[in-house]
């Protein structure tokens, strides 16, 4: 199955030099921790992954319907579509 939402990609995954020091702002505001970070490739929202307690990246998708996120982890360059449950 091919992802049908790639037309919603407006941004690229940031280069390595822009990834260090990035945080999940919603977790910081709550005083919570995260495991990994994801960036919305439609609007640039940064949120924590599904392995994190608060799953803010998924929550952003559920609220905005922006389906595709990219990894913000060092040396990772992949994206994922929540709507199609598929890695791109």
Automatic annotation (TrEMBL):
It comes from the Bacteria. Residues 1-88 form the UBP-type domain. InterPro entries: Znf_RING/FYVE/PHD (IPR013083), Znf_UBP (IPR001607). Coiled coil: none annotated. GO terms for molecular function: zinc ion binding. SUPFAM superfamilies: RING/U-box. PROSITE patterns: ZF_UBP (PS50271). This is UBP-type domain-containing protein. It comes from Paracoccus litorisediminis.
